Amino acid sequence: MAIVTPLKTAAEQTLIQQFADSKAELPGGPAVRKLREDAFAGFEAKGLPHRRLESWRYTDLRALLREARPLADGAAVTEAVKARLAALKLDGLRLVLVDGVFAPDLSTLDDIPEGVSVQSLSEALVSQREGLSRVLSGPSVGADDTGLMLNTALMRDGVFVEIAEGRNLEQPIVIVSLASGHEERAVFHRSVVLAAQGSRATIVEVSEAAGEAAQQINGAIVFETGDESEIQHVRIVTRQAAASVQVQSLLATVGAQAKFDSFAFVARAGTLRQQHFVRFAGEHSEIGLRGVNLLRGSEHSDVTLIVDHEVPHGTSRELFKTIAGGESTGVFQGKVVVRPHAQKTDGSMKSNALLLNDGATMFNKPELEIFADDVVCGHGATVAQIDGDQLFYLMARGLPRPQAEALVLQAFAGEAAEFIGDENVRELVMHEVESWLQAREAASEVSTV
Amino acid sequence: MAAVQETIDQVKSIDVTEYKYGFVTELEVDKPAKGLTEDTVRYISARKNEPEWMLEWRLDAFRRWKTMTEPTWSRVNYPPIDYQDLYYYAAPKKGASPKSLDEVDPAILETYKKLGIPLREQEILAGVAPENRVAVDAVFDSVSVVTTFKKELAQAGVIFCSISEAIQEHPELVKKYLATVVPVTDNYFATLNSAVFTDGSFVYVPKGVRCPMELSTYFRINEQNTGQFERTLIIADEGAYVSYLEGCTAPKRDENQLHAAVVELIALDDAEIKYSTVQNWYPGDAEGKGGIYNFVTKRGDCRGKNSKISWTQVETGSAITWKYPSCILRGDGSRGEFYSIAVSNGAQQVDSGTKMLHLGKNTTSKIIAKGIAAGKSDSTYRGMVSAHRKATGARNFTNCDSLLIGDQCGAHTIPYIEAKTATAIFEHEATTSKIGEDQLFYCQQRGLSEEEAVALIVNGFVKEVLQQLPMEFAVEAQKLITISLEGSVG
């Protein structure tokens, strides 16, 4: 069936106007400008992604974005923003984006470790550096995604981090992306991390909102990691306005004999679509993509990922845990692609979901696309409610029902969170899990019998 | 892991170049002009002597079909089909609507003999023990040439005849159930089928009757440039049981032929329908020239409480297979099952799977699908398991494995698992190690190797069905069972 693109919606028309008005002042040299133009042309031809597109089947962005908000064009550093930053307990090099714009004053640029260089994205875009278009484009499997195209066309700022060869960073690099949230705005930001050969680092992305106004955020982070590097990415998306709509893309190209891990924690995030496009560029590498989604109310969390085994001897692991209560919706769409010559690929993908009550929904689609014959690939998906036996076991030992339930859920989320290598970051995530469970109990969403 | 040698040999023995049923029977036939217009629909209806309501129903479907576009979402590639370059009806001239087997053209009888299908009741009785008797409805191109054991079935109250006959003899049943599972406009090919369907089987098993023998239909495409549009309707009334087998073959030709069937199953309270298919349409040659396009809509409706529908399929033929035998689990406590082995070779393309739609309370379903791709073929499993908000206590277990032989083929898995009730338990499993560990242990303790044990557990059900198949190629189908799971990927 031909995908019929109906007339442009109000939001699409606004976006077209916004691009026309702002393209001259958006940062970038001629190559970047061309990238933006091409990406926008792609978006204009297809429009906002909708449910008739297989990869957006469960998150109808066209319906969700009734109107496109005005583009945020500067950082609104409010008192609330400062308070939020002060409350965030996480050591390491802190790089702060407010409304998608890099804020050097709020960042800890005095402590940049040796071998690490930091630039704002807007600076990097105008620098005539070699291979910039390639880096920004990311893996080819994400190339036709319209959500990502919009980001490419309209990205304003972010950070551009380079880690030198052989550098082993003890402390994480923390990219804090705060929405000031005092007005309804659309934010397009992108960050880039280039990790040279043999480097090791943890990159944490914290995305929060300081105000209650609903935001439309389209963010992306690009990783290019060298041979023998070990990079861990942790994304924490929380404390967002309930009506906000976000698309967060992760693009990663991983070198040979390298390790790349990404973990995403999602709670109180309104409507969020995460999409991971990850590619093995060298042999004997390991990629792990994991995450925990905690959903209540009418929240919606979509995790869509494509892992591209382009070369032989790649190992990939995906594990996503979703706990859905209220009227919330969880989505997991994973796809492992094994190209014809990618022999000896070892892939395993799993999505587990617990539905806490009727009304919550889970959509699972773990896909495999395999063209090589000597591979081991498996996928599993489960949807269920909390195991009565487990509850009984704990309650028989004297725990009241709410605590028993919380313990089971905590363990369920912990199975994925335990893959976070940095202890402090892992503790922070588990702390967020606990606070979510407490909030749920406080809101009397826990059955007491 | 790569596939083991034994498996590779087995798959080779059923390669496209080994197709045994590719002969042509020379016959005089009746055909309308090529192409599809309202006149073609009227011609088919007139040839079948159908009542006015049936013609209107067909014309309505045809008008709707003209407004539809061919779907492209499946993972198969083929050049556009010219629907005006096909014959939509072909019937052997000699001995049309025979009263007994003696009136059937001997060439046709010879064909079935060659295929190993017993059409003479006394032959069957002479050769096989009575409990293994199978009633056969033989469909040759667009017409049913004979249905065996009708009298004996009638004694038990079972109606087993061609759908054309049912339209004449049992219009009330046909009107009541036709297109209630697959609506006329369900999809492009189902609508086309509704307009031009020619023959197929009709089964009605009355309340409380356990059908005394296996029923089966054998479909044969013989004519050139001819599409076959089969329509089958099976109804098991309250407490009834029926097991139905279907087999299909076609001659070797360079052209592609279209087979667009619709099969509807309806199980009322406590009824059970077991539907098995051995699909062995001509698959085309190793380069992908010729072969049948098998675009089929099969769906069962567990309409009553505690009803059960089970699909078993062995797919080795067709250039392109595009089918998803599904179950609508409407009745509380109803159960759906889907067991499939799909083997593709040469340039075959398979996009197949199932849908289990849980609507009633405490409904259960099980899916076991095994795809084996060799040569340059592509095999896709596409399945959906969904639980409606009110389907409390829904339970599904899915296991799909694929095996690749050679480096030019592809195996893909696209499962959709959608739960809208917290009490649903859905498990989708694609690793061999987790198939009932206690069962494995039990078998291994008795001296079976792990592989043998896994094959035994996963395939026990298929074996049971295949052993009952009346067709010669059941031997090949049975060989498939021994195919090892070693080296399989999710």
From TrEMBL, chain B:
InterPro entries, per database record: Fe-S_cluster_assembly_SufBD, SUF_FeS_clus_asmbl_SufB, SUF_FeS_clus_asmbl_SufBD_core, SUF_FeS_clus_asmbl_SufBD_sf, SufBD_N
Pfam families: SUFBD_core, SufBD_N
Domain SUF system FeS cluster assembly SufBD N-terminal: 148-211
SUF system FeS cluster assembly SufBD core domain location: 219-461
Residue spans crossing the bilayer: none
GO-annotated biological processes: iron-sulfur cluster assembly
Superkingdom of the source species: Bacteria
Family: Belongs to the iron-sulfur cluster assembly SufBD family.
Protein name: Fe-S cluster assembly protein SufB
